[in-house]
Each structure stands twice: as C-alpha cells, then as structure tokens.
Amino acid sequence: MRLAKYGFILLKLTGVWRPLTWQSWKGFFYNCFTLTVLMVIFMTSLSQVIYILKYIADIKTIISGGLVELAIANALIKGITVVFKRNRILELNEILQSEICTPRDNDELFIQKQVENSVKSYCLFYIIICEICIIIATIVSIFLDIPQRKLVYNAWLPYNWQSGIAYCITFILQHFTLSFAALMDTGHDCLLADCVLQVRAQIGILKCRMKKYHLHWKKLAIRENDQINENHFSEHVKHHLCIVDFAEQVNDTFLYSIFLQFVVSSSVICADIYALTSEPLFSTGFLTVVFFSTIFIVQTFGYCFIGDIVFHESGSIYSSIYQLDWTSLSPTLQKNLLLMMCRTSRPIQFSSGHLAVLSLDSFVAIMKLSYSAYNLLKSKS
Q1: How far apart are the first and last CA of the chain?
Q2: Domain extent listing, the chain
Q3: Where are the transmembrane segments (predicted)?
Q4: Of 19, 266, 317, 379, which sits most exposed with the smallest number of CB within 10 A?
Q5: Burial of 341 (0-12, 13-18, 19+ CB in 10 A)
Q6: pLDDT by residue (tens digit) across 283-303?
Q7: DSSP assignment of 21-89
Q8: Alpha-carbon torsion 17, 22, 23, 25, what sign?
Q9: Cα dist. 321→182, 269, 344 in Å?
C-alpha cells in the first residue's frame, strides 16, 4: 500500500480496515469485530443522546453532555466512511501505483520521499497529541471520578450502574469506547492527510518532468510534425488529468467526513469556550474541555493546512508552464501548452460542496464563527 502506513495501522486496530490478506475465516471474524466495534460506539452515542434529551436542564447540561457525544459521533461516521468506501480507497492506491504516477528517477524519488516524510511527521505528531490527551484524561478520570462514583461521561443506561461490579464494568467500557473512537478518528485523519498530500507529490513530479523534458522539446522543435513530440506532451497532459481525477476521487470519498468535521469542530470549539468560563480550574470538567479543545483545534487546523498547501501547489503549475522558454518551441507545442495553462489556472481545492473548504481562511472563519456563537450563548445565559 502506498497510502498511510500509520493510518492503516490504527484503522486495523480499531476494526474498520480488514487486512487485504485476511480472507475466509480470518475475514469473517474480523468482520464480526468490525460490526461489534461500530455497534458499541453507536450504542454509546445513542445513550448520550437519550440522556441529554431526558435530563435536559440548561445550556451547561447540554454542552457538558454534547461535547463527548459530538466527538464520538464524529469518529463513528469516519469509521463507517472507511468501511463503506474501502473499494474506493483501494482504487486510490492503485492510481498511485500506476506507471504514470510512479517516480522514474532520483529527482522524482526525492520529491516523493519529501512528501512521505511530511506525512510521517504529521501523522506521528497527530497520534502523539491524541495519545497524550487520552492518557491524561484517563489518569485524571481514575483519580477524580472513581472516588465520587462518577462515570467518564453522562449516559442513559438500562440498568443500575452504581453497584460495585456494574460500575467498574461501565467505567472501563466507557474508557475503552472513548479510546477506540479517538484512535479511529486519528487513523481516518492520517489516511485523509496522506491522500491529500499525495496530490502535492504528484504535482511536484509533474513539474519536475516538464522541466526535464523542456530541453528535449527544444531538440524536437524543428520537427513539428514528429509523433515523438506529441507523445511527450500528451504524457504530461495525461499525468495532469490523472492528478485532477485522483483529487476528485479523494474529495468524493471523504466528502461527508470533511463536512462533518467542520460542523462538529465549530460546535465543539464554541461549546468549549463557553464551558471554560463556567468550570472550576483543573476540575474534571475543565480538563475534559481542554482535552476536546486541543483535539478538535489540531484536527481542524490539520485539515485546513494540508488543503491550503495543495491549493497553492496546484496553482504553481500555471506559473511553471509560463516560465518555460516558449520561443524555442514549435507553434503546435506552444498552442498545446496554452491549453494546458488554461486548465491549470483553476487550482485543486478540497471541499464538501461550497460549505466546507480546506484552507487556512476556512480555519480562521471557523474560529470567528465559534467566538460569535459563544457571545450569543453568553448573552442568552
């Protein structure tokens, strides 16, 4: 697999990506594991919704119950996306392994390696941040919640969980569910980041090939009707179309994940700001809010940052073509380059419709929207 080594490891551990070599009885048991994990997370999310609707009292109650609910629901949708879009993800991997997308020399391998190192650093940083938050939240919950016989988060349960053994099982199950949801969320985001940044790698390889073949085009310019000339140029056009097609497939595959991430992030960040003003310093509620704030801000910024990188990188193809020595090229090749410039004048952009666009401007807009919503909640409370 060319895609997301670390992302697939997490997705396999959390039960939403069956190893390709697991067939027959192994595949059957893994599918049962997948169904069990998703059902447990779904029932956990449902129990929180019932609790919020049943014991709704004020804005603070809704916020305290809704923070974990939104986070778990977000992870659940991402896990379901990976399960149902499995074939599409495998097709994306096949595109990257095709002949036209495979690096052909040391310069192209260097570009590919740079992007892979960036993906590795991003994933490791993201995983470390999430794991630190999970560990801290677990330790704090053990020392603060257990003495008070409190659960990790409020949920409606069809049994009396306050008795000794029932409380222990429920407490452990909630921690496992929250940890699985966080790892599933992280694995999905690592996979998405790798897919998006692979577009950047292919753009870099395309620009590298165009610069190298430019000298070759000069030699072929005197043979305007030579078929070799056309073959060289058509290869670059096909590569660019392949990049655009890959980006569109990535966008379609993760369409709902992107939209949900923006909606949930805006809601959670707004709720976190409101909750921080009402929770005692270093209390369980305060640390929970800080935990979710950190995770969602890092998530949203990561989405927007990598999308912004690809947006500007794809726009640079236009200027790379413009900077070629056109005077040494044949009229036919000049016309073809002009058509290619027109096509590359529209940068590649990842979005969910026109509502959620992966860019740093969108991140700033989310933060502003969250603060505006916080002011509205504050004025109503």
Answers
A1: 52
A2: 5-380
A3: 28-53, 123-144, 164-183, 254-275, 281-306
A4: 379
A5: middle
A6: 666 776 777 777 788 888 888
A7: T--HHHHHHHHHHHHHHHHHHHHHHHHHHHHHHHS--SHHHHHHHHHHHHHHHHHHHHHHHHHHTHHHH
A8: negative
A9: 44, 42, 9
